[in-house]
Amino acid sequence: MQGQTSMSDIEYNNRRKKTRREVFLETMDAIIPWRRLIALIEPHYYHNKTGRPPLGIETMLRMYLLQIWFGLSDELTEDGIFDSRAMRDFMGINFLISQAPDSTTLMNFRHLLEKAGLQERIKDEILSLLEENGLVMHGGTIVDATIHQASGSTRNSTGERDPEMKSTKKGNNYYFGMKSHTGVDAGSGAVVNTAYTAANEHDITQASNCYREDDDVRYGDAAFIGVEKRPEMELSDLFSQSKRTNEEVEYRISKRPKSRTEKHDYPINWEKLIEAKKSAVRWMVEYPYYIVKRIFGCDRAIYRGIKKNACRMDMAFASANLYMFRHRLPQFST
User: pTM surpassing 0.70?
Assistant: First the structure.
């Protein structure tokens, strides 16, 4: 696929060190189960009997993942492949033989995945891979939500802001955009469930979509106080396969500081100690947000509408699961 080695290849391979981008791409390339993901996409992919044959699924999937990992637009992804040797090697492109797909082809591929809901299925397939390798535990889930800001500009064809995005206040600041609600495995930190809403939706409304049926313990911050009493939680537990009741599940929800009754630390402030123990577990829900927002750069809602942004975030969280366990997953051959 790479063709004959050129003088530029010899010069490039004689470098003193590899860049962090190159190491990252080589690691992700080795641990992604390409054949399993291609098999998910293949039934929905183009099967043209006439005209120009479509590009390979793996080539387009690699290009789409580059877009997710580096927070790029369609045009900048195309430019990045031409500009970066590490990206080009990840794509498996040799300009003596073939050219990189253009931005329009990438956009069409992204729309194909969105229409078939394949991003969520890819996320579930990655989670299954972690399960098969014993990297996901059961019995406890931590839930939380994070805000993705959207553009408030009205300089578009409609002259309006995105109607699906809403404003909310956090602390002393206002944000316009959407929320990612996640359920994280309390034992490993892997993202197991996701839900997406406008930013003004309260965190507690999506708890039933983020907790798991087989939970023995459920964690949450002060925004989830009273979650066990909500009707959708009772219904989800009632109709789940395990048919659990609220009495069989322990809810370890953090208290608000103002609601604590023990105000002194002598000899031991037991309430403060208990809250510290909850926080010692609950911090794990923040690590996937760090990967998605800071490492992958998916901190903003860049498309109009929640569905398109939700598909992008599902791919980002699936990639975050791989990134967290990159040193413990087996390596696959394409």
Answer: yes
